[in-house]
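Case study: Transcriptional regulator.
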Amino acid sequence: MKLKQLSEMLGLSQTTVSRALNGFPEVSAETRSRVMKAVRETGYRPNRAAQRLATGRAGSLGLVMPIAPGLDSDVHFGEFLAGLGEEAVKHDFHFVINPSAPEDEESTFRRLVASGNVDALYIAYVRRDDPRIALLNTLNMPFMVHGRAVDQGPHSYPFLDIDNTGAFYNAARLLIQLGHRRIGLINGPAHFAFAIRREKGMRKALAENGLPFDERLAHNGLMTDDFGHQAMEMLLEEPEPPTAVLCSSTVLALGAVRVLDRRGLKVGRDISLIAHDDELPMLKPENFSVPLTTTRSSLRAAGARIAERLINRVLQHGDPAEQELWRTELILRESTGPAPVR
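Here is what the predicted structure looks like once written out:
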């Protein structure tokens, strides 16, 4: 189907249909809805080259994907990308994924902006003091940050983040209320802002109850089940092992539980476990051998929200929620119980 046929079917001019497809603000919401419904029903696809000439937009979101020897793919990134994609396809936006070595990210961002192949950018896996944020603030292109830097002064950039400090504060406080005094932490890489904030939340809960943060009971590493397995082995080898452990992901918890099962330790009785749940569809906390108590926030929903906000900015619909901080839920299940008597 061509634009002329689509406009005749709708009883609208080709100009009106084109403007509705391209997000021009003077087209009413009702008309745009009619046009988009017809597009879905007929399978119409606009000519990308013509669309770009008419609007000056590429209809694409830019992602820079870090690659390096030994850098494993991440199931968390895939889930976030699924949410981003679900929202982008509603507006007929595409992705441009540009691989980059970590040390070459700045020039990769500059090339991507200069290419004209993207209308907006997003970054994730934010570091303590992230130079990419300062760079993107200097480039003439909408961008969004999934997360927040830690040591970067006032937040002067658009972001969506979850309250990582509050999540692990609440989780640690629950364990303390259950009588636990030695609490372990299996966390993400130490330079990532989310990991820093989760440790901060745990430290806060411990300090409020006059308990020390034992560095020997905290381990940082890749968000994989292998690292969860390794870290739990190290925790249990301590002269005084923890009676409870916080994990930064259900993926880490999967490895931790393998160790506990092999040693004949019962989760929720011999040792309590709380994990952060990104709502990964293939790893549901309620399906563990002992259902996991979790702090919960959907990565897929975050991806969809970031795509929505970026596309609104590209289409000049504004971005009233310049900065968003989502609270997490604390979901109680059988993996947490009173501290065992030792």
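For the exam, be able to explain this: The chain has three domains: 3-55, 60-162+299-326, 164-297.
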